[in-house]
Design goal:
The structure is a homodimer of 440-residue chains. With 440 residues, chain A is of the alpha/beta class. Chain A has helices at 21-33, 61-69, 75-83, 89-96, 126-130, 133-157, 174-184, 193-199, 209-214, 218-229, 242-253, 267-280, 296-301, 314-317, 407-419; strands at residues 39-46, 56-57, 103-106, 112-113, 120-125, 161-164, 189-190, 234-236, 259-262, 287-290, 309-312, 327-334, 343-344, 360-366, 372-379, 389-390, 393-397, 400-401, 437-439. In chain A, α11 (242-253) links the parallel β8 and β9.
């Protein structure tokens, strides 16, 4: 059995319990009613972007593929479902040989999306598809929220290095997935070793205030750090007096000191002063990293400051005000006879939670300069004359994953997709989605 | 080896990589400088509550105890640290026999806290304590954020049943910890099977709109569900027309129908209409559950509605506007000689990020009626004449966990601690912390 790509530094034998109970009770009732095998199409989409956001960033697709492969039932899982009386014996029997055998298409990871974009489409029997709802949404809603925040921050950073360092502000495993999503969204590295271990993301980190406080003096601490980590290290200079710390740092390390880190105070002002001081001390190549409660707005406000890199924590791993997306997983079509045609279905009650029935395709319309002008969504087969760039790609065929890719591919795809959006996409101010979604 | 209580339905052999890289590089530099063994005291506290919140709720302590026990180094973890060049060979050697051997005291799980409350105190050598920073903060910052939101919701619900159903809105493992924290904060059950499996939390769930849409008619769907799950089930009545669905539901199930669920529309209005209709149909004992984008304010606004239970998703697992806490893990005292006295230390730079040095105790002052009036925090030994209720309890002694408890104990403790706060604690409106923190 493969191991699940859940951001764990360990193997996960099964993802089958990352699931709301009602998925299982629905399977039981459908098995008994003889409707469990009806061919069904589920789609993942969002009715709206988080308020004020101009585009979404799809992340987590690679994790979804592993979660689907590892949605299996061993004795422990089946025993739990039996002991708790969650499903009956015929259902347990059916689950014991469960293996997703259907098809999954989706926007490739890193692609941007808009309201109504069918970012994932899962097709197979009702029972095999409905069980996957919860874990698919968990992954996409979390990872896409982080990637969207990361993308805004990486736009704002304008090419300066970005370090993800939010592990301590979110669940320890959520943090690993957050590092991964941040990387897709344009970050360069992470402080989180589990993310380095699991996904090969570059890791960084040198020291904290505790290290300075441990020693008898800041001078002792700096000397200990340089003795052990070398002159290329980053010294934290704001435990006591910044100017004195910078002087001591260069005195001990010499002008080859790698970097200094500033973690408090008025970063704009302090960065300018520290840069001037470093230059005066001859440490012209010593870099400045800032790390205090940054978000995309703070990063943008430091554009004119002599800062070389940003470390971002809380606001990144909490999605900068939008810690989740509102993606849903909806049945949009199903057959009523074994070989019958797919028929569109949709909820019809009053209120906002309606959706468009039918199996969808999607494409991005570009103008003559290659700038995106619209997200085109249609129901049914793709029109043969369609000239726009199709967005859905095949991910799983007959239960077999066909679209693995390195994380760097998703990262590069994101940067290219963002670059093809109208310029207003990267404005940080609140606005409408930068592309209209047109149903054809 | 015990397995880590990380909310996984699987064993986790090690928590050692849920750690920022700088914890390891600090250990390396301190080992080389001869300062790694200095006796040190780290404390976890927050400088402020989330804006407008009146109290915090500590959750995750049980998970911290397991994470500490399972902070170990196997060949895979050591190999990663070596190959990436994160630490040198002497450090790898030291890590290979790592086992936390110090002491941990803390507020017991479910207790309320305020700015400055020393909710956890970790004492031992610098090196063994500093390594635990990231994973301890991950757990406490995440779990306490969810528990605080859950507590407000459970106050607002006034004894009506609360179901946690946010798994699809957060990372799949964060979701399991969120279920646990929500239970501590007063929730009754969860939809998340992994939370039931891992923590024994009661699980619930029956069906979704997809089940109705799968079938040829709503009537067919209801019949299929009742045939399989019995009359005590909960039928979802808002896929098409609510009034027609309620009529069909009672017609098929009879007046013994367990419950109906409403997931859209004006819940106040719809709940009243559905209650009236159910009563007219003789289904007086059929309960009403509502589940549409609820938060503590929406729950409170339904206080006068004939609602029996609330299902809460997004706003619960994202902390209802505050998805993390701002807890920090700070070195507050250390010895400079092997058997020397602990000396208070604190960061002193300009800016808001200062802290109070020294090893602390804490107590809650109550008035004659048993109502809390202040959070008392002192440095040094507990005054022998102290009459207030001490808050720090022993959790780990010499590396051995001494304070395991069932999750229900934490839940009951929380409800009692909240009940002892001044009445204004449970106002949902924004306000100041309901207790002042007094340093003595």
């Amino acid at each position: 059995m493969n191991t699940a790509d859940l951001g764990l530094p360990v193997d996960v034998p099964s993802t089958a319990l990352f699931t709301d109970q009602y998925e299982y009770t629905m399977v039981q009732a459908a098995l008994r009613a003889g409707t469990a095998g009806r061919r069904s199409v589920f789609e993942v989409f969002t009715r709206r972007l988080p308020e004020g956001r101009r585009y979404g960033v799809l992340a987590g697709t690679g994790r979804v593929l592993d979660a689907v492969e590892n949605f299996r039932f061993d004795a422990g899982v089946l025993g739990f479902l039996r002991e708790r009386g969650i499903v009956d014996e015929p259902t347990l029997e059916w689950l014991s040989s469960y293996r997703f055998s259907g098809d999954i298409w989706g926007y490739p990871e890193g692609e941007v999306y808009f309201p109504g974009s069918p970012v994932l489409r899962v097709e197979g029997s009702f029972a095999e598809c409905v069980l996957l709802e919860t874990v698919i949404l968990s992954i996409l809603n979390h990872d896409s929220a982080i990637a969207a925040a990361a993308s805004r921050m990486s736009s704002a950073a304008g090419g300066r290095r970005l370090i993800e360092m939010g592990a301590r502000r979110t669940h320890e495993l959520s943090a690993v997935a957050a590092s991964r999503a941040a990387y897709v969204g344009g970050f360069d590295s992470t402080s989180d070793l589990a993310a380095g271990f699991r996904y090969g993301i570059p890791t960084v980190g040198t020291s904290a205030h505790a290290f300075t406080l441990l020693h008898d003096s800041e001078r002792d601490a700096f000397r200990a750090q340089i003795d052990s980590l070398g002159r290329g290290t980053t010294l934290l200079v704001d435990t006591y007096d910044v100017a004195e710390a910078v002087r001591t740092a260069v005195e001990i390390a010499g002008p080859g000191l790698g970097a200094v880190r500033i973690d408090s105070g008025d970063l704009l002002l302090v960065a300018h002063r520290v840069r001037q001081q470093l230059d005066e001390l001859g440490a012209r190549d010593t870099k400045i990293t800032v790390t205090s409660d940054l978000d995309e707005y703070a990063i943008a406000s430091l554009a004119a400051a002599p800062v070389d890199g940003y470390g971002v924590g809380t606001q990144l791993v909490t999605g900068s005000g939008h810690p989740t997306c509102s993606m849903v997983y909806k049945l949009v079509a199903r057959a009523t006879a074994p070989d019958g045609p797919l028929e569109p279905v949709a909820k019809k009650s009053l209120g906002a939670k309606t959706s468009v029935g039918g199996r969808k395709w999607a494409a991005r319309r570009l103008d003559a300069d290659g700038v995106a002008t619209a997200e085109i969504v249609g129901v049914g087969p793709v029109p043969p004359e369609l000239a726009d760039r199709q967005l859905l790609t095949e991910l799983v065929r007959g239960g077999r994953t066909v679209a693995r890719e390195p994380l760097d591919t998703a990262r590069e795809r994101h940067i290219a997709a963002r670059a093809a959006l109208p310029m207003s996409a990267i404005q940080l101010s609140r606005g409408e989605p930068v592309l209209p979604t047109e149903y054809v």
